[in-house]
Structure prediction request, 497 residues.
Amino acid sequence: MSTAEKYVTAAYLVVLAVVLLYIVLYAFKLGRLERDVGELAELARRREDERKRAA
Amino acid sequence: MSTSLRNNQHVVLAAAAGCLLLAGTSLAFYWVPNAPVEGFRQRIFYVHVPIALTAYACFGWAAWKALRLLWTRERRYDLESYTAVHMGVIFGILTLVTGSIWARTSWGHWWVWGSRQLVLFLVLFLFYAAYFMLRYSVEPGPRRANMSAVYTLFGVALIPVSFLAIRLAEDLVHPVVFTHDVQNRLTGSQLLTFLVCLGGMLSLAGSLYVNELTGKRLDARLRELREALQ
Amino acid sequence: MTYLGDVFALARKDLLLELRSRDTVPAMLLFVVSTLVVFHFALPSDASATAETGLLWVALLFTALLGLVRAFVAEREERVLDGLVLAPCDRSAIWLGKVIGVVAFLVAAEVVALPAYALFFQPVGWELVAAVALADLGLAAVGTLLAAMAAAGRARELLLPVLFLPLVIPIVVGGVGASATDDPGRYLAFLGLYDAVFAILSWASFEYVVTE
Prediction:
């Protein structure tokens, strides 16, 4: 591979790398969102139980 | 404030991005003939310029949403403007990196002050990076939304003024002005390849934008839910 | 009260405050002269005239920042800004009044800085004075708006320079060009254009920056 070809490919690969990095970071965010939803579901269930017990 | 992705935008955009980018990259590597003067190196043009134009489009989109916010005071425009600026900065960084690689292979240096587009993007990058500092420093709320919107509009005004300043500065500092030969005239095959890549980059930006916006809206809704339950 | 009446009342308030407390302008004066002295030690002996001009503009920029950081401090500490915003005056009058005050501070600093520069480095021509005058307007217009934004956040002394510097790069280009090249008219016209565009933008959008 000539030098020119190396640089051109590098440029395209950098773009690909950044997009993939974005996807990885987004996966982390989705994990956090899932955890939050789980916590809130737990909170809601506990509230429901308390209300049933009080009634 | 719906979090559901209306009309399957995300699927259409992602599919378009995938197809167009695949097609565009293939065209750029296999089909388009070598440029007469620059040779093989010129092919970076098909990734660098579409990304630059997409960054401008993102900043323009952000400014439009900012204007809508100031006009209607509807809070959803704040998130949309913020996400668009985020996309613009990501593509701006990519513009600087690909431009730097192109500069290195064309003229031997990783940075050239004589390239107007590169310097302009550097100034814009600094400006929009400061946007995030502004957002993190102010309490969330309508005041922060207004300020962010005003700042975004200033950015759009800065683009032509900065470009003029950079052109004037060339006479001051006397750098050798670097331009890439291909940007002056495009042949038919070059134009086609360029347009396909441009479409791909715009779809990519749109796809990432829709995804990120949904994520941010989900975040906001979950926060409201949490406050309601506690 | 009329619009201009409000503007001048606000400007008078700032100027009287400064006359009584004397904390901002003396600091700006000392700062700019000290900076010029630092530049003497920072420049090599064969530095070109253009380099010296460039450094003067850097000094002016940072002196302006110094003054601007304090622009809304008094208002914020005494919650005066809330009171002003609730008052039945046009919010942009607050901006214009502040700008007049900032320009006055800048001119006061430059009255000392330019002769000091002429003494330490090289003579000052009419083009430089004209460029500085035009630049003051642009710096004050943009700086006042950004100072109001920064005042609403945390770490405002750190935030203001970060917001300010990218926006005022064109002023530096215009200023150095007007004082260092053979065609000052072009650069002075550019400074005028910058002032017009950003003054109008700042004047129109100040309302949104200080209200909800």
Summary: The CA atoms of residues 15 and 104 of chain C lie 8 Å apart.
